[in-house]
Amino acid sequence: MSTTTTDAGEKMSAAGVPQKDLLLHADNLVAGYIPGVNILEGCSLEVAQGELVGIIGPNGAGKSTLLKALFGLVKIHSGTVTLQGKDITGMKANQLVANGVGFVPQNNNVFPSLTVEENMRMGTYLKPKIFTERWSFIGDLFPVLHDRRSQRAGAMSGGERQMVAMARALMMNPSVLLLDEPSAGLSPVRQDETFLRTRMINKAGVSVIMVEQNARRCLQVCDRGYVLDQGKDAYTGTGRELQADPKVISLYLGTLAEDVDEAAQSAEVEAAEAERIEAAVEAEAEAQALAEEADKKEES
Ligand SMILES: Nc1ncnc2c1ncn2[C@@H]1O[C@H](COP(=O)(O)OP(=O)(O)OP(=O)(O)O)[C@@H](O)[C@H]1O
After folding, report:
1. CA dihedral (71, 76, 82, 88) positive or negative
2. Phi and psi (nearest 5°) for 255?
3. What's the chain's average pLDDT?
4. Which residue's alpha carbon is nearest to atom 24 within ligand 1?
5. How far apart are the first and last CA of the chain?
6. Quick check: 226 and 212 in contact, CB under 8 A?
7. Atom 26, ligand 1: residue with shortest CA distance
8. I want to staple 190 with a disulfide (CB 3.0 to 4.6 A). Which of 159, 222, 272, 288 is the partner?
9. How far apart are CA 246 and CA 212, in angstroms?
C-alpha cells in the first residue's frame, strides 16, 4: 500500500485516510465471475472507521461486483482485502459476517414469508444469544420495526423492506455494512427516506459502503465517494469535491453544465440539499433522544 507522511508525522494512505483510522482496505483487486474474464481490473478502495463511502460509476463499471468480491461472492484472483489490519481476502460470506462485515444485496434481501421479528432472528442465526441486545438496538434506530414486529416482510412496501433488510444485516453488529443500490426501484420520497436511514445507521457508528445508481443523491449523503470505471477506481474525493469536479460531472453525473462556474453553482445547490438531509438526520436523532428521555421519566 502506498503511504505518505504528513509534516506532523502521521501516515496517510493513498486516498488520504490516516493509517490509524483505516478500517477496510481493498488493494488492487482483480476479480471476476468466469476464469479468464476479469471484471475488476486492479480496483482499490479505502474506508476509514465511521465513514460513509459511496461508489458510483457507469453501468457495467463493476460496482456491484466490487461489493460481491468484498463479501466473498465473487472470486478474487489477485489483490488483498484487509479489515482492521486482518487479511480477509477470499473468506466465505459466513466467515465475513462473523468477522464484522454485513451485506445487503439489491434484490431478494428479506424473507418475505417471515415476520419482521423472524427476519431479525435469521440475522443472528450465527449467534442467537445476541438477539435480544441487537433487537433492542434496532428498536432504538428504527422504532417502527418494533411496532410492526408481527407483520410479514413480504406485505411491506419496497422502502420498508429495504429497512428490514438493513436491520437484519445490522443484527450481527457489523463494523462495516455493504449496501448494493439501496434506493433502486423506489419512488423519490422513499429514496430520500432510504438515504436518511443509511445516514442514521452511519451516525450510530457503523461504517458503510454504498453502491448507487443515483449518483447525485449518493454523493450528497456520503463522506467520500469513488467513481469506478471499467473495473478500476477512477476518482475519489469527498462527496462535495466529486459533485463539483467537471470531469465527474460531464462523464458520470450527466448534467449539461459546460463550465466550472456552472458546475460550482450546481454543487452549491447539492450542498444545500446535503445539509437538509443532515439536518433531518439530526432532528430524527434528537426526537428519538427526547422520546427515550420521556420513556425513562415515565418509568421512574
Ligand atoms: N453473475 C454474473 N456472471 C457473469 N458476469 C456478470 C455477472 N454479474 C455481472 N456480470 C458482468 O460484470 C460486469 C459488471 O457488472 P456489475 O453489475 O458489477 O456492474 P455495475 O457497475 O454494478 O453496473 P450497474 O450499475 O448496471 O448495476 C458486467 O459486464 C456484467 O455483465
Report:
1. positive
2. -95, 170
3. 87
4. 59
5. 54
6. no
7. 59
8. 159
9. 20
Grid coordinates representing 171?
Answer: 443484527
Q: Is residue 131 part of a domain?
A: no
- Maximal CA-CA distance, the chain: 66
Q: What ipTM was predicted for this assembly?
A: 0.96
Tell me if 184 is assigned to some domain.
yes
* pTM reported for the whole predicted model: 0.83
Q: How far is the CA of 62 from the centre of ligand 1 (A)?
A: 6
Please indicate whether residue 218, judged by its CB atom, sits closer than 6 Å to ligand 1.
Answer: no
DSSP assignment, residue 159? H
In this structure, what C-alpha cell is assigned to residue 81? 482485502
Closest Cα partner for 265 from 238, 279, 246, 237? 246
CB of 61 within 6 A of ligand 1: the answer is yes
Convert the pLDDT of each residue in 37-66 to its tens digit: 999 999 999 999 999 999 999 889 999 999
Confirm if 236 and 227 have CB atoms less than 8 A apart. Answer: yes
CATH of the domain at 272: 3.40.50.300
Number of domains in the chain: 1
Q: Which domain holds residue 79?
A: 17-100+174-299
Cβ–Cβ under 8 Å, residues 161 and 109? yes
Kindly report the number of other CB atoms within 10 A of residue 238's CB atom: 14
Does residue 161 fall inside a structural domain? no
140 within some domain = no
